[in-house]
Design a protein that fits this description.
Layout lengths: L1 H20 L6 H21 L2 H16 L7 H12 L11 H15 L8 H36 L6 H15 L7 E11 L2 E7 L7 E3 L2 H10 L1 E4 L4 E10 L2 E10 L3 H6 L2 H65 L6 H33 L12 E4 H16 L4 E2 L1 H8 L3 E4 L1 H18 E12 L2 E10 L3 H12 L13 H13 L3 E9 L2 E13 L3
Parallel strand pairs: 8-10
Antiparallel strand pairs: 1-2, 1-6, 2-3, 4-5, 5-6, 7-9, 9-13, 10-11, 11-13, 12-13
Length: 539
């Protein structure tokens, strides 16, 4: 705004000087009236953000002022090229260099008689200056927008997720590079390098494939040069290696139908490295936050275990208190005791009975409170609509963190997700259930595991397959325990027993079917476990 205002002042000062010091074809008062008209229309076009019309109107004003005057006069010539000097103020969100150059050359050719070729030299020089200044300005503005996008996450991470930041960055960079429809950045993904495998962290679009593998030479070049380009038919993929702390992030950027000249002119790699460097800090911070979330989640999980154990204890206490209640009632009716004994014991028995009755009443009151389902926050399950994609992401994140194992899905799952199908469940308890089972798998596994998701008869099935480092008879017992329908049975034996009790308790609360079986593959025993959720359409 300030630059534009100063330009109008300079333009009007030049114009007034030219009118006052040269012969005019119109009366002077007509020029000053036109100055007022010019400025009024300029303000209107500025308010309407009509950049092209504003540019054309400036040249209409300039042509009226210099009409009939000698263009070799330095002040007159400067008035014509002043818009080139102010070119950056005409850019708005788009550049109008071609139109600006055409209007400038057209004005010079219209008033310069005869036309002299040298006049093109300052126009070309100014055009080069303009391009340099525009690029510098656009780099600064884009860097500022990217930084603000990332900073907004730190201000309120609940309002902005990494994939939304990527979407904003893609929009900013596509505008910056002047990509046309069908061109530009299509997808940004972030991976963390573990060994020789890239594991997905986040992306601008949802991806079912969560791992990526590079050739050995590609991986070596990427680490050495910090960047890599993989050529495709219509899409080129640019990879950027950015290590931070103990993490090795690899950012990929898919670019469609973009010329190398355009990308180099606008410093494509520099802009992408800037954006990804800031994102790497964000993702590293988010990982630390997620670790704290996991710690809090484990605290909640431990609380669930505590409450379930407390419920079991209260059942035991309540059962054991029944004989004591009968004993108190018996002692209250000691009518058949000999008088001599009764006299000796009466006071003492009465005192102890009263105290026991008071204690018993208090214990039973607390036991009934804990056993009341409505009083237990962990049993009062709050159900919500959870998308299939969310369940997939939760299981994938748990599995990748614990076992570095991808979760496979079939095409029916993807189709259900595209249709917006969901589960009616509780997300926290589902996560507890999957975390406990995957931890169990990892603890006793030989290294042969498989986790998959598929649909069958209107149900989402999460399938776990694991070769256990335990005896066949223990696997058989584990299968029996998982298939048992005993509601309150206390599973004993191995240390995994109580964990299974918790898993089954949560599954019962969530109305999730559990089925287990043992399969023999190549003379090796595998245990297979299925969690079956009902699939619903969104309301």
């Amino acid at each position: 705004m300030l630059r534009s205002f100063l330009f109008r002042i300079i333009l009007l000062m030049f114009s007034c000087w030219i009118v006052e010091h040269n012969e005019n074809i119109f009366p002077k008062w007509a020029y000053y009236v036109f100055v007022v008209i010019y400025y009024a229309i300029y303000c209107l076009l500025k308010h309407k953000q009509k950049d092209i019309l504003r540019l054309a109107w400036d040249f209409v004003f300039i042509n009226v002022v210099i009409w009939g005057k000698e263009l070799h006069d330095p002040m007159t010539f400067m008035l014509v090229i002043v818009p080139m000097i102010n070119a950056i103020n005409y850019t708005g969100k788009r550049s109008h260099l071609n139109l600006l150059s055409l209007l400038t050359l057209g004005t010079l050719m219209l008033h310069l008689r005869p036309f002299e070729p040298w006049i093109v030299i300052p126009i070309v020089a100014l055009a080069i200056m303009y391009l340099t200044s525009v690029r510098t300005y656009r780099v600064w503005r884009t860097e500022k927008e990217i930084t603000e996008n990332v900073n907004r996450y730190f201000l309120d991470p609940l309002m902005l997720k990494p994939h939304q930041i990527y979407e904003n960055i893609i929009t900013e960079l596509n505008n910056y590079f002047h990509f046309k429809e069908g061109q530009g950045i299509k997808l940004i993904t972030t991976y963390v390098l573990k060994g020789e495998t890239l594991w997905l962290v986040s992306a601008s679009d949802f991806l079912w494939t969560r791992t990526r593998h590079l050739e050995i030479q590609q991986l070596q070049d990427l680490k050495k040069y910090k960047e890599l380009r993989i050529l495709g038919d219509n899409i080129n993929t640019y990879l950027f290696y950015i290590p931070i702390g103990e993490f090795e992030y690899v950012f990929t950027c898919d670019v469609s139908n973009a010329s190398s000249v355009t990308l180099n002119f606008y410093k494509f790699k520099d802009m992408m490295r800037l954006a990804f460097s800031k994102m790497s800090i964000l993702l590293s911070t988010e990982y630390r936050i997620s670790e704290r979330r996991e710690e809090k989640f484990n605290e909640i999980k431990d609380s669930v275990l505590y409450v379930n154990q407390a419920v079991k204890v209260m059942h035991f206490i309540r059962n054991k208190m029944t004989p004591l209640s009968n004993l108190i009632a018996y002692h209250k009716e000691m009518g058949n005791m000999p008088d001599d004994i009764l006299d000796k014991m009466k006071d003492r028995i009465s005192k102890e009975a009263n105290q026991a009755e008071t204690d018993l009443s208090e214990i039973l009151r607390f036991a009934n409170y804990l056993l009341d389902k409505s009083k237990n926050p962990f049993l009062c399950t709050e159900f919500q609509e959870v998308s299939i994609l969310k369940i997939y992401l939760i299981i994938s994140e748990i599995t990748e963190r614990a076992m570095q194992l991808p979760v496979s899905v079939d095409e029916k799952i993807k189709l259900c997700a595209d249709k917006g199908m969901c589960l009616h469940t509780n997300l926290v308890e589902s996560k507890i259930m999957f975390t406990d089972w995957i931890t169990n798998m990892m603890k006793y596994s030989t290294g042969c595991e498989n986790i998959s998701m598929y649909t069958e008869e209107g149900k989402l099935i999460v399938h776990f397959e694991n070769q256990y480092r335990i005896k066949d008879k223990d696997i058989d017992k584990l299968v029996r325990d998982m298939n048992s329908n005993a509601k309150d049975a206390v599973l004993e034996g191995k240390e995994y027993g109580y964990g299974i009790y918790i898993i089954k308790s949560i599954a019962r609360e969530l109305d999730v079917e559990i089925s287990a079986k043992k399969e023999n593959k190549q003379d090796q025993a595998f245990m297979c476990l299925d969690f079956k959720y009902m699939i619903y359409g969104r309301n």
